[in-house]
Amino acid sequence: MFVKDTAVQLLVDQWVSYCATDLCPNLFPAPKTEVVNRCLHHINVSLASSSFIVAKACSAADVLIYFLLQGYITDNMKMAIGSNPHVVRWMQLIEGHVIVYAFGKKGVEGLTRVEFVGLPAAVTPEL
């Protein structure tokens, strides 16, 4: 992956590690609601003053976390809106970036190629 800024890459790596150690084990195969909600709160706090997880642009961390949370947020939309409004706003923003990226019109920092295998089809949250 090509990243313009090593500080951004370090933050992306930290978020990927967070996903591997905290988020994924508690989301799959069945969500542990209390732990996932703590993870969502952590992400929500991070997004309170920023549009993106890392830096001022969509990064690989944003895309990874988006795809990990998409099904859970969709299934728990009412809870998510009330408890994690920044996460919901961010999910809508990232969905737009992922769609644009898929058509090759805009890049995602830290991401040169995406291959998602075995993920369920994307579902747009209904607000």
What does this structure look like?
The protein is an all-alpha fold. 61% of the residues lie in helices and 0% in strands. The protein has 5 helices and no strands. The mean pLDDT is 79.
Report a brief summary of the structure.
This protein is an all-alpha fold. The chain has helices at 6-27, 33-47, 60-75, 77-83, 85-102.
Computed structural class: mainly alpha
CATH architecture assignment: Up-down Bundle
Stated plainly, the CATH topology is called Glutathione S-transferase Yfyf (Class Pi), Chain A, domain 2
Average pLDDT, rounded to a whole number, is 79
Radius of gyration: 14 Å
Largest sheet: none
Helix content: 55-70%
CATH class category label? Mainly Alpha
Query: How many domain regions?
Result: 1
What is the 3D form?
A: globular
Q: Return the string of H and E elements.
A: HHHHH
Give the secondary structure arrangement, pairings included.
Blueprint: H1 6-27, H2 33-47, H3 60-75, H4 77-83, H5 85-102
Notable characteristics:
about 130 residues; mainly alpha; Glutathione S-transferase Yfyf (Class Pi), Chain A, domain 2; 5 helices; globular
